[in-house]
Specification:
CATH superfamily: Amino acid/polyamine transporter I
Order of helices and strands: HHHHHHHHHHHHHHHH
Distance between the termini: 34 Å
CATH class: Mainly Alpha
Number of domains: 1
Number of strands: 0
Largest sheet: none
CATH architecture: Up-down Bundle
CATH topology: Amino acid/polyamine transporter I
Radius of gyration: 20 Å
């Protein structure tokens, strides 16, 4: 499921966004993002190996900070970034499905996006076994199909990287580092695996193994597709078609049939990505509710808490899919995720590193890399889209202030936390 979430967002929704910032070096941005993600995963693996649970990130934050506003606020940021990812991938689904009809934008995009989110809700209502089996089958289809696309595109181009021949714009170091924010967002699906500690066999070992395997698989697939897209299109062409770059690359490389197959593959990949993400975020919100870290209202609904959080997730994701475009949705998700990730690393370093046997150097390296990427990304967005920076800062501040008002303390006393 972690692999399925990553591939759904990273390939189809973010390839064009990364190329827009990194230029011809955009395949390397995936490698750089994977390196940062590898350092970040260290905190989650060490904590999950010590305390495997279905709480995932909520558990990690509570173990570090206690049940206070810092832990609750950071956990809620993660949940919101996951909901944002759902709307991002849902709009990507709609964009690809409409490509054969030469429809670019318009009311059908949000309508189809909301439709696939509702589909994910219906499958989730069927139960965990249905979600797990569907996600497994879809992940296999995605990995195989996308891998074949990359190989075929590179082969048909005669191993020529067309993107490298485009000198139309100078791409600086800041742009490359900023593009890593999107690359990191493309890998953040590994965090959904931390929510499965109560279901995975031998979770003290296998949660970490699953995280590293999913990241490794996605690195290989992302690079293959990045070179495949870059072999068919110049940077200007990739940027112009950034919301549907794989479909655009498929037609010159593979013809009309390849184009249609890529559209079908994108629809399958993004739909299953939304499904897995809805499952993970509803579980996380239910766990936060059970931990009394976020307020909850039934709004007259019957059934268990997770059924309610499914509804909340679908409503919020649908709202974002209607009112925001792909670029802004991706940017907002990157801001929320990077801030949450830094809170996790600092918490593990400050409160738990000795208990779990973690290396302080690795933890501080992960924290520093996140900070560098966040600063570069913010600098780029202040130039190109300052409004989204305002939205992100306002959202982050509001989350922590509201949690402080709800919980009446920033950090829980350590003695009470241990109790």
């Amino acid at each position: 499921m972690g692999t399925g979430v990553m591939i759904g967002a990273g390939i189809f929704a973010l390839t064009g966004q990364i190329a827009q910032l990194a230029g011809p070096l955009f395949p390397l941005a995936f490698i750089a993002g994977a390196i940062v993600t590898g350092f970040s995963a260290y905190s989650y693996i060490r904590m999950s190996n010590k305390w495997p649970s279905s709480g995932g990130i909520a558990m990690i934050l509570q173990k570090c900070y206690g049940p206070g506003a810092v832990a609750a606020g950071a956990a809620l940021l993660m949940a919101l970034s996951m909901v944002i990812a759902e709307s991002l991938v849902a709009r990507t689904f709609a964009t690809y499905v409409l490509r054969p009809f030469d429809i670019d934008g318009g009311p059908l995009v949000p309508i189809l996006a909301v439709g696939v989110i509702v589909f994910a809700y219906v499958v989730n209502i069927a139960g965990n076994r249905s979600v797990g089996l569907f996600s497994l089958v879809m992940a296999a289809i995605k990995i195989g199909g996308i891998g074949l696309f990359g190989i075929a595109a590179i082969w048909s181009s005669g191993f020529r990287f067309a993107a490298a021949s485009d000198p139309a714009q100078a791409y600086g170091v800041t742009g490359f580092i900023a593009s890593m924010a999107f690359a990191i967002l493309a890998f953040k699906g590994f965090t959904t695996i931390t929510n499965s500690g109560s279901e995975i066999t031998e979770p003290n070992r296998n949660v970490g193994r699953a995280i590293m395997l999913s990241i490794g698989i996605c690195v290989a697939v992302y690079l293959l597709v990045a070179f495949g897209v870059g072999s068919s299109l110049t940077i200007d062409e990739i940027v112009a078609a950034r919301d549907y770059s794989l479909a655009e690359a498929a037609e010159p490389a593979l013809g009309q049939t390849g184009f249609l197959l890529t559209v079908i593959l994108a629809a399958v990949a993004t739909a299953s990505g939304v499904l897995a993400s809805v499952f993970a975020v509803s579980r996380m919100l239910a766990m936060l509710t059970d931990m009394k870290m976020i307020p909850h209202s039934h709004f007259g609904m019957s059934g268990p808490i997770q059924r309610h959080t499914l509804v909340y997730t679908v409503v919020i994701a649908s709202t974002l899919a209607v009112f925001f475009d792909l670029g802004r949705i991706a940017s907002l998700g990157a801001f929320f995720y990077l801030v949450m990730d830094m809170v996790v690393h600092w918490g593990v370093f400050r409160y738990r590193r000795e208990e779990i046997g973690a290396s302080g150097l690795v933890l501080l390296t992960a924290l520093t890399l996140d900070a560098v990427v966040l600063v570069a990304f913010t600098a780029m967005k202040l130039q190109s889209d300052p409004v989204i920076v305002l939205y992100a800062v306002s959202g982050i501040v509001a989350v922590f202030i509201l949690e402080r008002l709800y919980l009446s303390r920033w950090l829980a006393p350590q003695a009470a936390h241990e109790h």
